[in-house]
From TrEMBL:
Lineage, uppermost ranks: Bacteria, Bacillati, Actinomycetota, Actinomycetes, Jiangellales
Record Pfam families: Aldo_ket_red
Residue spans crossing the bilayer: none
A GO-annotated cellular component: cytoplasm
Listed name of the protein: Aldo/keto reductase
GO molecular function, one term: oxidoreductase activity
Amino acid sequence: MQFRRIGDVQVSAIGLGGMPMSIEGRPDEARSIATIHAALDAGITFIDTADAYHLYADEVGHNETLIAKALAAYGGDTSGVLVATKGGHLRPGDGSWTRNGSPDHLKRACEASLKRLGADAIGLYQFHRPDPSVPYEESVGALRELLDEGKIRMAGVSNANPEQIELANRVLDGRLVSVQNQFSPRFRSSEPELDLCDRLGIAFLPWSPLGGISRAGDLGSAHEPFARVAAAHGVSPQQVCLAWMLAKSEQVIPIPGSSRPETIRDSGAAVDLMLTPEELASLD
């Protein structure tokens, strides 16, 4: 497994996105735990979650609890695993998504996530999505206070534009370590944010890197160059996609969502797939 850095922490170059294990269509708990264990067996040391990854109003933090349970049940060493979670995006339980970026809410949400994860401090805490009703600097200011209090070890933002990234870094006194934005062959509009992170030395964490839960399986048919390169290497188009992302910048750490052991093992193998300059140009 290749490694990259988030802040001063070394993590696997491919992470595991936990969302599919807790929202619509989620598998039973045994398969989810097997998926997390398969990721750990493959050398993956970065797991992404959020308090909003749940179905029903009375199970906020379902995915955080699941990940904590899986880590506790794993037979190997998990001391090097970085779990990142997020706050500020909510699911009322009716399938909709809402936002609350108020500092009071983010501090309460962080405390609740801390308890569910069973940690002394959250390794990486990210502001999940800007709330138009709250000044961005106030939301990020809550993360600064959590950092200063030692409740979180690192801070990041998600779904942010370049201006918000630069503002967050100023509010955090240069301590912004990650930006988690949507990025995939289907969704390329976060390339300015990726370029900015590359210049600033901030980790860029593409969410839904394979196109999302409902489209990941169709990546090859929807984007023919990825299928063609995959056939040439005898691997899946999904592996090609992740290898293409990794080649873009040393700051990129894709976090493909998975709910089956075989899919996360396939994703993890992307770190060993070396694409030629000509292949990368055709994918771009």
